[in-house]
């Protein structure tokens, strides 16, 4: 039986969401060996404006390449959280960058200040996306930590491997911390009929 | 002898797969002007072509780009350019030149929303008719349209093959979704793929007749610089390449241009049926929308609707044989496209009242979703 796992990474242009999408797709597709389709949409501007990357995962060939109902939603700013929360499945995972997302649509959200971690711990705000990837690998059952690390190191510019590995580890550690704060999960078998 | 396989498993974007396909086909020359959503093709070839002793030139605009491509091809190189709607508009003049002078080349048009500058980063399928009739004068067209990353690779190779075989510019119409989408693809560099190279003259230079009619309709093509001197012009010419105004020379020339493609009509028809045998409702789609169609068909079948799909990879010449078959066997035919109805017009043209044809036209810069197709099916059946 084939399954579909739909992921959307969203925020504003310049936060590195498309690169995140590529790395995640590469980790799942090349290193974990599943079928993936990665798409994106963004505005004509390089920074600011809305940006999103989507990754669809399956064990069979993927027909529709864009995300349908979401199993995993990452929002890196308030607007994307407001815009896309409704696309999440009832048992889907919501992860927010709490540096920017202050109003949560549901108490069932993992809140991690990716940008603040990048800025304060790693001294480079631009690795916030890699911090988030680290967190995703711990919070969502869709990619192995090993695959994500291999994929990150294969994509980032030479000389930044250490910074990026630290960013990944910081994200994983932050995820382990929020995971301990438990919250109710939707009952099993409660599936959306559209998917 | 069994060849060693060197498979590379890669996560590639449509544009990157086009580059891989072009290199596999033997492309050694690229001239272009960057434009979203086709820029990655230029970007990547600017690195890869020089590594293989090929040539990459960024030109001042798209008119010059296709001019350079035509020149390179006349000198013997397999040449291509890549652009999007605004640039494709500028190329129309030289496109006609490539048709009349019978210069093989490949033009990639990554379709974005138009008219004019339109929607640089958003998908559309609105250049289908421009690919067919954009350049003036009566002429045949071959236009191919991929919907997966694998097809980006395979159809680029086919585009080069057709252009070399029939001495015609071939257009690869990709929509932005496919151009920028990434999927896993396994490329085997040692794989034996059919690569066609233009037929060269076997006669000595003084016997060479550059635009001679042959049973296939495709004259042998000598490289400029190889000692075969001949005249190339945009004027309607005689078999020696010189301008003519003799009706008895003009007519066979224009008819031969058409015959090159019409004689090989079946060969250039690429498409695929999905669960079409027992389908009451068939969706005819191409590009990224063909993927929405397959999803809609799968979801519909789960609800007991007998839906099939005809995915078109060849847009021109129009796949009338396959479309007619669908029209005969289905009660309802749905043609979803990201334009106001360019392929549906052709479907309606060949429909002899066999099936009801309905369109879905989406022009808001986003892809047609499976739900929208299913919604339309419920509405009309």
Supply the key terms.
heterodimer; A: 195 residues; alpha/beta; Pyruvate-ferredoxin Oxidoreductase, domain 3; six-stranded mixed β-sheet; disordered C terminus; B: 381 residues; Rossmann fold; 2 domains; eight-stranded mixed β-sheet; five-stranded mixed β-sheet; 12 helices; 38% helix
List the helices and strands and how they pair.
The complex is a heterodimer of chains A (195) and B (381).
Chain A: E1 4-12, H1 17-31, E2 35-42, E3 50-58, E4 70-75, H2 78-84, E5 88-97, E6 109-112, H3 114-121, H4 128-139, H5 145-155, H6 161-180
Parallel strand pairs in A: 1-4, 4-5, 5-6
Antiparallel strand pairs in A: 1-3, 2-3
Helix pairs in contact in A: 1-5, 3-4, 4-5, 4-6
Chain B: E1 7-13, H1 14-25, E2 27-32, H2 39-51, E3 55-58, H3 62-74, E4 78-83, H4 85-100, E5 105-113, E6 119-123, H5 128-133, E7 142-144, H6 149-166, E8 169-175, H7 176-180, E9 182-188, H8 247-262, E10 271-274, E11 281-286, H9 288-302, E12 307-312, E13 314-316, H10 320-329, E14 332-337, H11 343-350, E15 356-361, H12 370-380
Parallel strand pairs in B: 2-3, 2-4, 4-5, 5-8, 7-8, 11-12, 11-14, 14-15
Antiparallel strand pairs in B: 1-9, 5-6, 7-13, 10-12
Helix pairs in contact in B: 1-2, 1-6, 3-4, 9-12
